[in-house]
Amino acid sequence: MDILSLFVILPVITILVLVFAKGLKQARLVAMIGSVVQLAMAINLLFAYFRERAVNDSIMLFSKDLVWFKEFNIHYNIGVDGISVVLILLTAIVVLAGVFISWKMEELPKEFFISLIVLSTGVYGFFISIDLFTMFVFYEIAVIPMYLLIGIWGSGPKEYSAMKLTLMLMGASAVLLVGILGIYFNSNADGGPLTFNILEIAQVNIPFEAQKLFFPLTFIGFAVIGALFPFHTWSPDGHASAPTAVSMLHAGVLMKLGGYGVFRVAMFLLPAGAMHWSWFFIILSAIGVIYGAFAAIKQTDLKYINAYSSVSHLGMVLFALLMLNKTAWNGAILQSLSHGFMTALFFALIGMIYGRTHTRDITKLGGLLKVIPFISVIYVIGGLASLGLPGFSGFVAEMNIFVGAFQHDNMFYRVATIVSVSAIVVTAVYILRVVGIMLMGPVKNEAFLQLPDATWYEKAGIFLLLIPIVGIGVLPFWLSELVMASLQPFIQGVL
């Protein structure tokens, strides 16, 4: 069995075992074991990748190609580079942390963990796919369980939020499918057979008129799940209604499919279209960065604050990708990783606070640092990482983005960069505002004086997410070099 297919097969085995699990204890034990094995596989893949890369200079390693639909030249074609490997590792960590945070899930626990693992299966498959059609199938597998996870296990207006999320993402999928088919039917421009293979299409000179037409469709199709302004409105509502682990996977992992798809498909296969349309989408991305930050200031619900923060941070990923240079692209990948860990940590902490206080309204909270010090201190650390303090992953990512973006001589790019950089100040405002209101001062509600601090399984989930945030910030070079090496063939294709 090849090393990559296991990332699809093992979750399916975990799901089959979960079907026969009885009660919460068995369900969470099976989910935990399955997730621990997936994390072990992801760590093994990282080291195997380093060993293989030392002797193999192929763009994608551990490739496997099986014919799926011969008539349309659709293949189960998989492979990874350094970017895929680190995103798979991100997914494995967030999934395991989500299982720990959902340790006390009482309502339909077996079905909940099955849906969670189906989502992760789609994400793994998406990150290892080289065939566009196969990638699209895994993309849909990852998106569809969100409707059930929010609609069944969510809170508040969960039916509305689940329906809104599903309709907007399915609409984006329809647009994306048109873009993918447009690429497919232009993949024989140099006289070869039609193909969905990304590496083969990259060698084809797709006509400029086709690139101009299909780039915006492909970009928007992927970027909607990456919270592109003004198509971001599904995200805050979805986050607010989703259960804690689902918010963690939604923001920490699922939304990364957008930036990855833009990078791997839209930018790489349609470079002329990217250059033609970059100015337009840079404007939308810069607006999203600023809008998300200012919108977060106005919120009082902790989940909405983090959701709008995600709109801002993921807008920065799209902004960096549109800069079309290696430094900014490196920052985009690092920002995807950093945001994945940070936002999953935030949602985990918000879930812990809500589970104890039964409110997410910061105006009703206060003095929690005295009552639940461990959770409060970790929240402050997460906040410092989010606003880009040196020593944390956010600083490394944002410095690469802004340095790369400012390398352009064109005044338009530099003005857009300055506008986006200003979001850091706004981020500091809403982070410090939440910390001041929620954690500092006297305890506003006497009932909160008896609140328990984090349990062992909650601490396990927290440390799984916190260690990479600090690790990337303190020792970023190995990761940056890994990403940079994987960017080289893609940036050559674009420039």
Keywords:
transmembrane; mainly alpha; transmembrane helix; globular; ND/Mrp_TM; two-stranded antiparallel ribbon; single chain; NADH_Q_OxRdtase_chainM/4
General description of the model:
- With 495 residues, this protein is mainly alpha-helical.
- It has one domain (6-494).
- Helices cover 74% and strands 3% of the residues.
- The chain is built from 22 helices and 2 strands.
- The longest helix is centred in the last third of the chain and has 32 residues, at 326-357.
- The two termini are 38 Å apart.
Task: Provide the fold topology.
Blueprint: H1 6-19, H2 23-53, E1 61-69, E2 74-80, H3 82-101, H4 109-128, H5 132-143, H6 145-153, H7 158-185, H8 198-201, H9 208-223, H10 234-241, H11 244-254, H12 256-269, H13 271-298, H14 302-321, H15 326-357, H16 368-371, H17 373-386, H18 393-406, H19 411-421, H20 423-439, H21 456-474, H22 477-494
Antiparallel strand pairs: 1-2
Helix pairs in contact: 1-2, 1-4, 2-3, 2-4, 3-4, 3-11, 3-15, 3-21, 4-5, 4-6, 4-11, 5-7, 6-7, 7-9, 7-10, 9-12, 9-13, 10-14, 11-15, 12-14, 12-22, 13-14, 13-19, 13-20, 14-15, 14-18, 14-20, 15-17, 15-18, 15-21, 15-22, 17-20, 18-21
Low-pLDDT segments, ≥5 res: none
Helical residues, percent:
over 70%
- What overall geometry do the principal axes of the alpha carbons give? globular
> Strands across the major sheet, in which order?
1-2
Quote the average pLDDT. Answer: 86
Counting structural domains, the number is: 1
**How would you characterize the largest beta sheet?**
2 strands, antiparallel
Count of helical segments? 22
What gap, in angstroms, lies between the N and C termini? 38 Å
- The fraction of residues assigned to DSSP E strands is under 5%
